Amino acid sequence: MLGIYAVLFSCATTSTDFERNLLEISIDELQVAYSERIISATDVVRYYQRRIAEIDPQLNSVIETNPDALTIAAALDAEREIGQVRSRMHGVPVLLKDNIDTADAMLTTAGSLALIDVPKPTEDAHVVQQLRSAGAIILGKTNLSEWANFRSTDSASGWSGRGGQARNPYVLDRTPCGSSSGSAVAVAANLTMVAVGTETDGSVVCPASINGLVGIKPTLGVVSRSGIIPVAHSQDTAGPMARSVTDATIMLNAMIGIDATDNASVSAGSRALIDYTRFLSRNGLRGKRIGVVRQLFNDDSELKNLLNTQLQILEEGGATLVDVEFDNMEVMSDAEFEVLLYEFKNDLNAYLQNRGGEYLSLAKLIEFNNDNSEAEMPFFGQELFEQAQEKGELSDDVYKEALRTSKRLSQADGIDAVMTRHNLDALVAPGNEAAWPIDHENGDNPYTYIPSSSLAAISGYPSISVPAGFLENLPIGLLFFGGAFDEPTLISISYDYEQRTLARRPPSFLPTNN
């Protein structure tokens, strides 16, 4: 029996009908169409390539397309023809954030002009290896906040020297949030099916929330960090960005795997690998105790009203809500910043030395930016680069104390303590305010940013952003987070909540076909 999308494709009489059926298509729906031989991966790649060419000039979300994508798609189509289907990701187009190494015809630059002419990576990042093995098609690289938004204290999210300003597809003069800006915008605008983002603190879940998507930031080590241009090893992780919890979970399955070169991956791999799709349950809220972090709600009455409605939906699904509060958030944040400065310098220097070329250190990058200030610093400077450069080695007592403090306040005295005290399964907070205006003169600083990502980010624990609705046509997300390796519980809760609300809708300004 044909699935609904197979029926739709079989009824298509024109190319316009055919392509319209690809809008908002899910991974499982695409697999049905593939299995019925109604569409091929080559067709799908061509569709997204045309859509990127016609729509993305307004959005600046895709920094580069993969010249080998059609060849890869054809090879995967040939495998399917002889009955070889690698996984549910077979033939699924994926965009990668431009800080993720690929040993192919594309560049890996973190959005900086400095890395355009340095030697290309000699091997794919581990997460890319996993995706390719699962049958994913690497469609291209996405724009981002340059250097994962760790260059300036006055940056505007979504801007890079190489890619320019990425724009929110719902309202073009609004921020896409960062740093995985392009990954979020491209998925929201149907320029790809799914994308990979990276997060140190908020860089997956904020752009997901502000662009009406699901973003999963996994527990540190669940996805390998190898081959990703670093900010800070104690917090960095890649994560999937998709239009649904199901698609994000399918993609997370394809991204995980033990990497012997990453000690966090080895540690996480001591636990049995999990098929996370087992936890996509319509009863995921039933019997759950969820802590509501009201100190992260702000004073915007419309936002509060929207959030309170979402909390009622959680209760209607069978969850018990408990108001909770976290102490020492400011102290934790200050300690985190010290850690990031130290780790950024040390981790980036190691990465650059491994890449080779002219710029082998943070100090050399600072010189490059000064020498190329018109192209690299037309709107904001490199204060964070300069502050990090002043830091010493990771053996410094200041660093070690900051790391202990940030982990203690976020873990044992933070999430662990609150969840144990109240016997909780998860925590919930707003993912964002409505997207603020893009402001190259003042950066993001004059606008409200809800720091709900920080507890999960600093602790290294998982979080998931899920669409919750709209304020003035701008998406708002709900953020669920919990303890270490609590992905199964968070996925279960998030999926049930998503199915009760179905809050996502595509950007209205975009054309519905090519």
Write up this protein.
Helices cover 40% and strands 13% of the residues. The chain contains 19 helices and 13 strands. A hairpin with a 2-residue loop joins β12 and β13 (474-481). The chain is globular and about 60 Å long.
Low-confidence stretches: none
Q: What's the level 1 CATH class of the largest domain? A: Alpha Beta
Distance between the termini: 30 Å
| Basic shape | globular
Q: Which architecture of the largest domain would the CATH scheme give at its second level?
A: Alpha-Beta Complex
Question: In CATH terms, what is the fold-level topology of the largest domain?
Answer: Amidase signature (AS) enzymes
Estimate the mean pLDDT confidence.
95
Taken as a percent bin, the fraction of beta residues is 5-15%
Instruction: Return the domain count.
Output: 2
Sketch the major β-sheet: 11 strands, mixed
In oligomeric terms, what are we looking at?
A: single chain
Count of β-strands: 13
Number of helices: 19
